[in-house]
Amino acid sequence: MTNIGIKHLIAILVYMAFVVGIGAYFARKANKNPESFFLGGRSLGPWVTAFSAEASDMSGYLLMGIPGLAYWTGLSEAGWTCIGLAIGTYLNFLIVSKRLRRYSVAIGAFTVPDYFSKRFREEKKVLMMISSLVIIVFFAVYAAQCLSACGKLFANIFNINYHAMMIVSAVFVLLYTFLGGFLAESASDFLQAIVMVTVLVIVVALMTIHAGGFGTIIANARSIDGFLSLTKSATPSLESVNSFGKASSYGFLSIVSTLAWGLGYFGMPQVLLRFMGIRSEKELKLSRRVAIIWVVISMAAAMFIGIAGRSIIGLDYLSNNASENVFIDASAMFLPPFLAGLAAAGVLAASVSSSDSYLLISSSAISQSIFRSIVKKDATDKQVIWCSRISLCVITIVAMIIAWNSNSTIFGITSFAWAGFGAAFGPLMLFSLFWKRTTYASAIAGMISGGLMVFIWKLLIKPLGGVFGVYELLPSFVVSSLVIVIVSLFTHNKNSEIDRDFEKAKSGC
After folding, report:
1. Out of 161, 209, 219, 287, which could bridge 49 as a Cys pair, Cβ 3.0 to 4.6 Å?
2. Per-residue CA distances from 324 to 72, 317, 366 (Å)
3. What's the mean pLDDT in 473-494?
4. DSSP states of 473-506
5. What is the count of structural domains for the chain?
6. CA distance 295 to 490
């Protein structure tokens, strides 16, 4: 390994040691009981809530996926995606956070499947089982995306085998999630959110200076047909660097489809858990402001890195997959070795902050929602926690298998898992919180129809192209919503206990 590589490694190891230390620090408190392990005893402050919610959401696609997409086709798809995500972030905090916090306290729920089950006071735990399976399936895919980002990062920096680096990353994530649970995850996500936005802003500044200023970058981008347009998409050559054909149209249907990314937030368990875990609903207003500022700055910087990459010699890529390295390559090019290592730690932060959330929530779905609620109802707290840790190991292995193909794009993997949660959980979360007449039967039907439609649209309908080429989240979200409304109207049966819970959550009493 070269001297530069050693400095990169030292910076990353310092960061990793610090994060593992956080896990060790919170280990004792996390082991008190399942609520402490999975929800931190509802003790999160507003800043930790905001930063950890966004860091756990903005996985490797923030520092690799979005810059790569902006570099490859320009502003349109990356821009509308980021606009949709920003709107979704704000509305989720504004609409969902307070009501979910109240409802989860009123019914004593501390996981998303637990909330759905207790919201409808089910006895046979069918809804809990289905929601747990949704979490396990889509979070395995999501965690795979994060491990893939880590593998690509280290393979690129140290010129070491991708698969070996992915395994090392998986072990690291598993270690501190295993130790500290939700509190460790949230505290480390707070740190990682700061690292992510800091390195993004620094790299943007250095790229701008090196390229000759902001004006030079914009002038070069404008010279590429459709590159800075929100209604056109650039068409890069696969054979010659910085060679483009005539831009393709990015019309109304594509814009609406891309904005639909924002709908995914209403069903994201890793974000919803932060709403449930904050210590006071009064602090959610500050959390909302902090979160939206962080999101706007981070995503704007990530997009600009991709755009600026077209103006810098040496940042040359001939595929979308390869262009996802633009942030890392720019960091290595312009930062001193140790700081470049910290920038690499930023990518690690983005990926780890998400994968730990995915693994923890998936393990809670198995241990709390399936093992204790269905398989062994008299399980002790200690047995539940150990079941969770065994589940962590198994799900990590599955995620590694999914991520084994190094040629898949981070953005592509993310979009599928995001659609799955957004369609399966999003509509039901909104209806269950705000429409009293939502029924148990409609909850099951809506969740199943939304999740299945993601697969059906992605694999069978979307390949037809044309009007069917929209992002699978949009039609799946609509289908799930319609099913919930229709089934509720046909199966409504007044239940005084459910109505009482609803009114208690509504009033906050």
Report:
1. 287
2. 9, 9, 34
3. 94
4. HHHHHHHHHHHHHHHHHHH----HHHHHHHHHHH
5. 1
6. 41
196 touches 346 (CB < 8 A): yes
Are the CB atoms for 10 and 340 separated by under 8 Å?
no
Lowest mean pLDDT among 54-58, 89-93, 488-492: 54-58
Structure tokens at 75: 């502003």
DSSP string, 186-237: HHHHHHHHHHHHHHHHHHHHHHHHHHT-HHHHHHHHHTSTTTT-SSEE--B-
Q: Which residues contact 426 (CB under 8 A, 6 or more apart)?
A: 263, 264, 265, 266, 267, 450, 477, 480
Strands 232-233 and 248-249 come out as antiparallel
Domain range spanning residue 267? 3-507
Cα separations in angstroms, 176 against 185, 211, 247? 8, 40, 46
482: CATH? 1.20.1730.10
What is the spatial distance between Cα 266 and Cα 68, in angstroms, rounded to a whole number? Answer: 26
Do the beta carbons of residue 436 and residue 463 sit within 8 Å?
no
What CA–CA distance (Å, rounded) separates 45 from 351? 23
Q: Which of 173-177, 203-207, 270-274, 379-383 has the lowest mean pLDDT?
A: 173-177
Is 60:149 a contact under the CB 8 Å cutoff?
Answer: yes
Place of tokens 């709403």: 275
